[in-house]
Amino acid sequence: MIRIDAMWLSAEPIDMRAGTERLLARVVQVFGVAQAHHGYLFANARGTRIKLLVHDGFGVWCAARRLNVGRFVWAAGSTPSLALTAAQFDALVLGLPWQRLPELSSITRA
């Protein structure tokens, strides 16, 4: 498998027709540099599709995922990028509310 040490989410939507070269240019524009063993996530405006660009140290890999029902929970706000933990990434690609993982990890009495 491809080693990914850090995962970054781009808050602004991107056209899903973008290929690896355009996504790589967007990574450099938003993040300043494409780091080896880092993954960069992008979504379309409707939040139904995501693309992951990974720089493995030798080249770039691009993967896509589409939800048939529902939308990916995406970051909103003025921050152009956001770091994700492995658990947040796993929840995000399943369409779960990854921003709420800390509060969902325990059950308390109301």
From TrEMBL:
Which Pfam family name is an example for this entry?
TnpB_IS66
What is the name listed in the Swiss-Prot or TrEMBL entry for this protein?
A: IS66 family insertion sequence element accessory protein TnpB
Q: What is the lineage of its organism?
A: Bacteria, Pseudomonadati, Pseudomonadota, Betaproteobacteria, Burkholderiales
